[in-house]
């Protein structure tokens, strides 16, 4: 039985394979990728939704490029073995991969006098100012949570719209085939 990581990496491979085999110069749309995978392999009933989610992830990670609802393999995309080699070299150097500390070596360092000034400012703050600042932070956190929820809902709506577009395209294609056969 395969694990979920194997299935995810297999879906990556299937997507790459379908884009390469379809040889469309402007890229392949999700319907073409899904059709190729369905023709070549056994696919789950929710393939379109899985593809939509996976394609977004691959675009976000830079593995694919999306232009006008078509996907192409990114030109700067390297082979996984090379990525693994590079990540192991980073670990050997003692820096974790994609570590913010590794990139931010020029952090803003305050002098002793600057720290003393900041401490004096903090000592002069009243309880009302602290409460107002805490309220502002709480409101900002609530706004961030609402924005994250809205972003998730927008992603879901976009995936559903993409699935509807693919369904409409497939239905149109089936209708054309029926007309030709009649």
UniProtKB/TrEMBL annotation:
Gene3D superfamilies the UniProt entry points to: Winged helix-like DNA-binding domain superfamily/Winged helix DNA-binding domain (1.10.10.10)
Gene Ontology cellular component terms for the protein in this record: nucleosome; nucleus
Stored SMART domains: H15
PROSITE patterns to which the protein is assigned, alphabetical: H15
Localization: Chromosome; Nucleus
The H15 domain, residue ranges: 7-75
GO biological processes: nucleosome assembly
Principal location listed in the UniProt entry: nucleus
GO molecular function, one term: double-stranded telomeric DNA binding
Keywords, ordered alphabetically: Chromosome, Coiled coil, DNA-binding, Nucleus
InterPro entries: Histone_H1/H5_H15, SMH1-6, WH-like_DNA-bd_sf, WH_DNA-bd_sf
Coiled-coil region: 130-164
Name listed for the protein in its UniProt record: H15 domain-containing protein
Organism placement in taxonomy: Eukaryota, Viridiplantae, Streptophyta, Embryophyta, Tracheophyta
